[in-house]
Specification:
alpha/beta; 19 strands; Alpha-D-Glucose-1,6-Bisphosphate, Chain A, domain 3; 7-stranded mixed beta sheet; single chain; globular
């Protein structure tokens, strides 16, 4: 993929107030995106949400100014999950949606994700067009004084989203008798995740619901499941749900605190939809990260797995291209096409609760569907991500692949959100996988 200055695999992301993640970048992004998406004579509008990071205030004001200067009206919804912005863009007939979030990253990072009027994340092509405008001040079209946009805060966004999420649960059914722990990662869903489950009848224990601007994802949420597992066991809950900072991904634990990862969640929902004749073409989209055992299991259930590169927007694009109704990632981005255009942790959670309820079995039994091949993921810090193009690294990867041959697979890629090179290996012989990864990691030094 062509190297871009600002956009990665999931919008623009970096350390707040540093390098490309500054108020100036946000301002110019608003002006450039506003220029590109101001088309026609109607009043153009953009929906802007954020998670609970301290720097959200900075970027919210900066990007708002950019859009206003381009003549777009801005509707500010405050802390809301990323998928709610995708939903509101369509619901409110907006031209653009913006989510200010760095997802699962620590509080000192932040990011800017853009959604088009169809609720989908912008394509690579559109992001490149925006970057070209950002790089050329003469390409920015500022509104005339009388056409400058207006900014409005809307208070009913949470209520709209709550009702939308509840509508994804089977009509007429409730969660009475379920004791559920939900970890909202001190993030964007802190004020609505537990409320949705409670309104559906569940007994709810909430953790990660006291954001202070600096504790988002801190030892909680989908990347840190220890507290969730402990709380489920201590309270004898039937299941635990963990969201990340912007609630677009999910991980779960069963009644014993054992992890149910994105692969299992995706596979279970796929089989559930197939059972109810709601799985288009009996196929789903997954990424190169999903375990081979996951693919083999679904194939045995008569479900095809189409793989794409990492990033839920690539999953969504492939789903749209092939008219498929489900896709997702091992990390927990699950896109249920009947409801969402992007990963939605709460929609996925309700789908899982519905199938657990339908099977009338404990979560540990429901989720025991396949044994993953041993898989190792390593993150190697690197200030020079182009090192992957060097002969030394390419030869190391070839050597490692020959070691595993047909008994495993490797994936080496640049992170689209951090200065990391991610190395994944899986295979029957875990010792051999480790040796293969060691060869690649040594070449990256």
């Amino acid at each position: 993929m062509e190297q871009r200055k600002y956009f990665g695999t999931d919008g623009i992301r970096g350390t707040a107030n540093k390098d490309n993640m500054t108020a100036d970048t946000a301002l110019r992004l608003g002006m450039a995106a506003g220029t590109l998406f101001t088309r026609g004579d109607h009043r153009h509008r953009v929906i802007i949400g954020k998670d609970t990071r301290l720097s959200g205030y900075l970027f919210e004001n900066a990007i708002t100014s950019g859009f206003l200067s381009a003549g777009m009206d801005v509707f500010l919804v405050g802390p809301m999950p990323t998928p709610s912005i995708a939903m509101l863009v369509k619901s409110m007939r907006a031209d653009l949606g913006v989510m200010i979030s760095a997802s699962h990253n620590p509080y000192y990072d932040n990011g800017l994700k853009l959604f088009g009027p169809d609720g989908h994340k912008l394509s690579d092509k559109t992001e490149k067009e925006i970057e070209k405008i950002m790089a050329n001040p003469n390409a920015i079209k500022l509104a005339k004084p009388e056409a400058i946009g207006r900014a409005t805060r809307i208070d009913d966004a949470a209520g709209r989203y709550i009702e939308f999420i509840k509508s994804s649960f089977p009509k007429g059914r409730r969660l009475d008798g379920f004791k559920i722990v939900i970890d909202c990662a001190n993030g964007a869903a802190y004020h609505l995740g537990g409320k949705i489950l409670w309104e559906l009848g569940a007994e709810v224990i909430e953790i990660g619901v006291k954001p202070n601007g600096e504790n988002i994802n801190l030892n909680c949420g989908s990347n840190h499941l220890e507290l969730l597992s402990k709380t489920v066991i201590e309270n004898k809950a039937c299941v635990g749900i963990a969201l990340d900072g912007d609630a677009d991904r999910i991980q779960m634990v069963d009644e014993y605190g054992k992890v149910i990862d994105g692969d299992r969640i995706l596979a279970l929902i796929a089989c559930h939809l197939k059972k109810h004749n709601k799985l288009n073409s009996n196929a789903i989209v997954a990424t190169t990260m999903s375990n081979l055992a996951f693919e083999h299991y679904l194939n045995n259930q008569g479900i095809d797995v189409i793989r794409t590169q990492v990033g839920d927007r690539y999953v969504a694009a492939k789903m749209a291209e092939l008219n498929l109704s489900l896709g997702g990632e091992q990390s927990g981005h699950i896109i249920v096409g009947d409801y969402s255009t992007t990963g939605d942790g709460l929609v996925a959670a309700l789908q899982m609760l519905a199938l657990i309820q339908e099977q009338n079995q404990p979560a540990s039994i429901v989720a025991n569907i396949f044994t993953p091949l041993p898989q190792i993921l390593r993150n190697v810090s690197s200030s020079n991500l182009l090192i992957l193009d060097t002969l030394q690294v390419k030869q190391a990867i070839q050597t490692a692949e020959k070691m595993l041959a047909s008994n495993g697979r490797l994936l080496v890629r640049k992170s689209g959100t951090e200065n990391l090179i991610r190395i994944m290996g899986e295979g029957i012989d875990i010792k051999l996988v480790k040796e293969a990864l060691d060869i690649i990691e040594s070449a990256l030094d």
